Amino acid sequence: MKITADFPGGNIIVDEIKDNNIYLHQDLRTTTIDWFYWYFEVLQPSKGEHNFSFTKSPAIGVRGPAVSLDKGRTWNWLGDNKHILNGFMYDFTGDEESVRFSFAMPYQESHLKEFIDANIHNPLFKHLELGKTKKGRSIDLITLGDIYNSDVIVLTARSHCCEMMASYVLEGVIESILKNSSYLQDHAFFIVPFLDKDGVEDGDQGKSRAPHDHNRDFEDNSIYPSIIALKKRINELGAERFIGYIDFHCLYMAGYQNEHIYFVGSESPKIAEAQMEIGRMLEKTYTILPFEARGYLPFGESWNVGAGVKYQTGSSWATNNLPNVKLATTIEFPYANALGTPVTQKSAKSFGVKFGNVITSFFQ
Ligand SMILES: [Zn+2]
After folding, report:
1. Which structural domains are found in the chain, ordered by start?
2. Is the pLDDT of residue 142 over 80?
3. How many other C-beta atoms are found inside a 10 Å radius of the C-beta of residue 32?
4. Which residues surround ligand 1, an ion (CB under 5 A)?
5. Ligand 1: centre distance to CA 159 (Å)
């Protein structure tokens, strides 16, 4: 039996293996706070029950770890088995070549590629390059419709690279908008699915990355190529044509305010009103993952107190720099549990399809 994290998104440090007891922990790397992302593979496991125990901080969500038997393409929740403190038990058949485990359901460049391949023949869908990351990777840009001659809405995700469940929602949003070809006659979308692609592929936490993370990089002295290029391209295309900006995130692992979907209240009263309006529209739409408008987190409450004087988030940058923006917002998704309903690859994407319909109704 071998444990490895040597693949896209991989993240683990093995402390010790004693018979069927494996002690390990998540690799924080350049993250300045404690966080909980990890993703590893067991190769040729021996038959029988094995106990995996995390030796540092909490690293198991409310539905246990996610398990993949096809090298990370599809995932299921193992389920909560709390009898192992901060860990889980897995009963291998002995016939598996590979079993992967993660905090949730990783969405890598390979998932995005599969999605792009399925849509690339649609003339309304374009896959372009926004620029290169610090490590030389291509920063994907997807456009829907004609970004040169329409009102434009920006969609971004993974400024905190570990927040992978948001990517399935984004896929659903894109899919539903593509079906609305009449809407795309005079509206367009500018989509950056991985704002921190190096972090996504390297398997970093990304949240509170030193010296600051990608969602604290929107001031004039931005340091990350994706953020620099995003702001530059928007200004080249004409900031006044951008009417919407939605940034997709995931929450903390579990607990209060981390197990429902919500919009993060803007400091701007006008934008806050727009957030509540789209929230009411979303609540009226049947979604497989329940959404309640009252889950809204107003500015000034709980953790939503701004990025600090030195920093600016993507949605606050859009609020301050896009003169005709009607809505600039962060939307937060739970990793595993939305008001009692399991968040999965399928349910997250299905929620995204409905959210996409609400977006096109909102930005008429
Ligand atoms: Zn985030």
Report:
1. 2-102 (2.60.40.3120), 109-362 (3.40.630.10)
2. yes
3. 14
4. 160, 163, 249
5. 7
Q: What is the CB-side half-sphere exposure of residue 116 using CA atoms within 13 A?
A: 17
38 C-alpha to center of ligand 1: Å? 16
How much distance in Å is there from the Cα of 129 to the middle of ligand 1?
23
Q: How far is the CA of 187 from the centre of ligand 1 (A)?
A: 27
Q: What percent of the chain has pLDDT over 90?
A: 96
**161 Cα to the center of ligand 1, angstroms:** 8
Torsion of CA 311, 153, 341, 304, to 10 degrees: 20
DSSP β-bridge partners for residue 326: none
Distance 121 CA to ligand 1 centre (A): 32
- How many angstroms is it from 96 CA to the middle of ligand 1? 34
pLDDT at 308 over 80: no
What separation in Å is there between the alpha carbon of 157 and the centre of ligand 1? 9
Cross-sheet strand order for the sheet of 66-68:
2-4, 39-43, 98-102, 66-68, 76-77
Report the separation in Å between the CA atom of 361 and the middle of ligand 1, taken as the mean of its atom positions: 26
Tokens 């007891």 — which residue?
Answer: 21
pLDDT at 82: 63
Calculate how far, in angstroms, residue 34's C-alpha sits from the geometric centre of ligand 1: 14
Nearest to 265 by CA among 250, 275, 252, 277: 275
Radius of gyration in angstroms for the set of CA atoms belonging to the chain, rounded to a whole number: 20
pLDDT at residue 307, rounded to an integer: 72
* 83 pLDDT tier (thresholds 50, 70, 90): confident
Distance (Å) from CA 249 to ligand 1 centroid: 4
Residue 80: the pLDDT is: 77
Please state the rounded mean pLDDT for residues 178-185.
97
Taking the model in full, what pTM does it have?
A: 0.97
Centre of ligand 1 from the C-alpha of residue 213, in Å: 10
- Average pLDDT for 309-320: 92
Mean of the pLDDT values across residues 221-243? Answer: 98
Alpha helices by DSSP H, listed for the chain, are: 109-119, 165-179, 197-202, 225-237, 269-284, 314-321, 345-362
Sign (positive or negative) of CA dihedral 306, 309, 311, 316:
positive
Distance from the CA of 26 to the center of ligand 1, in angstroms?
A: 18
